[in-house]
Queue: 2 jobs
Job 1
Amino acid sequence: MSNRDGKLAGRRILITGAASGMGRAIAELFTREGARVALLDLNGPAVLELAKDLQGFGIECDISSAQQVADSVAAAIKALGGLDGVVNAAGLYYSKSFEETDIESWNRVMAVNVTGPYHLLQAALPALRQASSATIVNIASISGYLPMAGTAAYSTSKAAILMLTKSLGFELGPNIRVNAICPGVIKTEMTRHIWEDPARAASTADRVSLKKMGEAEDIAKAALYLSSEDSSFATGTEIVLDGGFSWR
Amino acid sequence: MHPYFQMIIDAYAAAQRPFFHQVTPGVARDMMSASISAAPKPTDLPVMASVNNENVQGPNGAIAIRRYLPEGGILGTCVYAHSGGWVIGDLESGDNLCRRLAGLASVEVISVDYRLAPEYPFPVPLDDVYAVVQWASGLGRPLIVAGESAGANLVAAAAIRARDEKGPAIIAQLLASPVTDHNFETESYRTIGDKNWLLSRADMEWFWGHYCAESDARNNPLVSPLRLKNASGLPQAMVVVSELDPLRDEGLAYAELLRTSGVPVSVIEGKDMLHAYFFAAGAIPEVAQSVADSASWLKNCILASNGVNNQ
């Protein structure tokens, strides 16, 4: 499984939300590129199954819980013998008008999408500081800068992650680089409601310049770039991968 | 102190409820049962596929158990021992927590109605718990143990016995507000012991007197696990303590003993919480989170035991 010539050879990377979607694609690509991975997910059995396949470390974790994150990150660091990078891919999608967004839903979206990365980075930073060249990649969204119908809570959480990315890019150098990816509509479980509905899938694809929805692997390749030395001058910035969705 | 607990303390004071050490064991048991049956059933308990009362044979005769099977896949078996200073409590005292652990950790929980002191002092309650641990290992799933207060003392002792007698393989132990020693001079005893916040030093002396009257016998690590010379080889542990519990420091000391012996330990410290605070999970979100965190930890111990993660 290990690839000594890969772009991530020798790197130890922790990925949240790793059991499905973009997190999973990132875990698979990173492993192919020589990284050793620690995988966190709310779905314990699924993430352990994947960890087994990738010869990585897997652990169930609700990233909204400081306790679970502290335990999981400590176990991951122990298993990998340190940490060179983090990918915050765990996320919760929520779609309702602002008026229909009750406080429990609002708080849950913030707890997973904003406070989750907070807990994770607080727990991981001491280990990342030990690494000679560490990377943090946050999976945000084009929703973080582009208002769309029924996404006030989700979009606000993603805007927060974009600013956290900039703030940490500012604060954590020179040995830790922090960047974000803003995916457009990517074919994952989170967007099942779009691609399973032929009419909605067609109208969504039509809005995209490239006339298709993105694949999780498209995002994984950007995460690879941002987690490797190829992006050694990038920090506090974001890569938008939306097939041209934002400009139409 | 969290206002929910203050409310309970105030209500007890208003009702002039006696403290455990001021009554007989029989009255204390009735007080405990009355508190449990008076409390409204939480609305957030996980749904169980089945809950059954059964009996297991032990060295002292039949032991009543209650088996909680959650809906969905079962990853392992968890033997649970309730709180109550070895003297009071029964299957009802831990009923809510058993449902929560079963649902959240995807395990069958087996609650033990172990025999109580003073009618049955040490080692009978431990014999009962250990017999159920042995029986539960026969179910063939990964095995964990959990307990609260004196129940945590019993499962910690059962884990020591299992290690020393080469008994069942126990993967993990959840020790909530554990009794680990008979030293009443810890910092937490000195600062909180006389406040009668659900548990006092006088209560604990009374409980100890019933469970293990002879002071020399209390140095046995199966009675006071903190007296262990060597804790290596014991199951990884989650130790949950409350900030405002006389037993806080002995819980933390046991976590430290395990850690220095190379046993992986995770600790939750319930800020503003009183002794054995998991019972408040339905009322206080932070407590529900601590229960969820403990269950998630147990689940991870089981998942990791299936040969994954051995890098």
Job 2
Amino acid sequence: MSRDLDQLGAEYEALIQFLYLAPVGLVQADSHGEIAMMNPISAQLLMPLSRDGSLDNLFTALQDVAPELRVLCDTFGAPSGKVCDGMHVHLNAGGIAGSAKRVPQILSITLLKLDATRLMAVISDVTEQVRRERQLRQSDAWLNAILTGITDYALVSIDWQGRICEWNPSIERVTGHGPDIVGQPFSVFYAPDAIIPEHLFDRLREADSNGWTLDEGRRLRADGSAFWGSVLIAPLPDREPLPGEDPGPAYCLILRDISDKREASERRRRETFADYLTGLANRRAFFEAAEQELLRSQALPRPTAVVVIDADHFKAINDRHGHPGGDAVLQHLAAILTSTFREVDVVARIGGEEFAVLLPSTDLARAAVVAERLRAAVASQNAIIDGLAVRFTVSAGVAASIDGSGGVDLLLKQADQALYAAKRAGRNRVERWRPELVSCTTHDHAHHPGEDADAA
Amino acid sequence: MTNPTITFGMPDLAARLDSCRPEELDSLDFGVIGFDADTNVDLYNAFESQAAGLSQQRVVGQPLFTNVAPCLNNFMVAQRFEDAQDDGSTLDDTIDYVLTLRMRPVKVALRLLASPGGAHRYVLVQRQPR
């Protein structure tokens, strides 16, 4: 018997403590508001409002801040039900004037009529919650202003896979795309050969690790017309989908039409990264692009190819037509290179008459096919020097890395070994790198580009 | 059996309580809650335990204003102790308050005691005739 009583006592105490510590105010009162039971949080929140220091009556305690409560209850017709649900009550200045400490400013009150004689109230401090909601509304308004008020930005939310989640008018304004763009990858803004699926993921991964990623270049509108655009991608906060929930927006993409700034940025790019004679990428641009691409291909394994191209007997052309003639041949070759390779490939002049092309996501065989197409194109089209048609040929060496390991130096060295083999085999040829070529001596890029191989 | 020499309203009460043995605190006819500089309860006498329906074991060691008496966690009580601690000043004030003892609102007088050199800070609780 005493055991049972002890047990009951312990349970009672646990229940009491549960109510003492409940983090919301709970009050039970009669239909006139006379308080029968209440927990400590109720006293914590209501005591500062009480005029006479008592908490005998709920309506009296709240009369200064929620005078309508008594009337609401009196006029509530149903035998039971919610008299009010989460009603916000704004307190006056609240607490000690000038106190830096946080004091409740807004209470939420839910009043439940249990029956003709009993009321139950839930009271909680929602000051912080209301403040957060207000901030959220402000950011919403801010975003809205951007979406509707600014003409040269498109704000696009994209998911984990880089697919466009939602359509809004800013997308249409900048790109002309309608709501049917939803679900497409953001590469839809790029020319078909200007971005490969792997690059799409590279950008997202870059945004993950750096907090943002930005690129600039030719972009396409829905009607196929081109503009000069910059694309900024940043990961969104709180983007982990809840279990069972569809993954929503994971990144924010901002597409800007900067056509009017293109000239300045193009000039800057040309000065830093372009070869003065041919307009192709220069050595620096090639090495930077290759290093970046190989690094990326280690994260998301895929092959990367390099084709090294050298004009055959270029010394003879120079001797016969002079340097201006030689330059014209190089420009002619540069034009064929540009039209042969994709926009995503990096075509560079890395030496006097030596060119290199970086082909992302391309294996040895595919790169060799393109190189062969180039060789054939050069052999079949005459360059014009001083009104004279000049026929010349190129040799090419192709190498590829399966997963980015070895770096750009090794890849370029192997392509050079293949090029040397093509030269030795009679020129106007394409050779693929193979392990037997390792023993072949080649020229050294850093010091004697091109010429040596030709002379060998 | 109550202790006649210590009363709720007497002067210098904090120093007297500091030197009391636990049995002496338990014999008082008002509630004694003592707490340390981190607001953890270190004294909880029998009177208060009986009134609140909580045993000492459930209360001692717990933070007063969040886990024992959240009803006191406002500018009227908790803030006063915080301010006194920040200023290094002495607090000795008696206020009317309502405690929710066993969920019943009970009018009480609270005496708030804190001094920079004191061993404990105190909230003392005396029931008022209704």
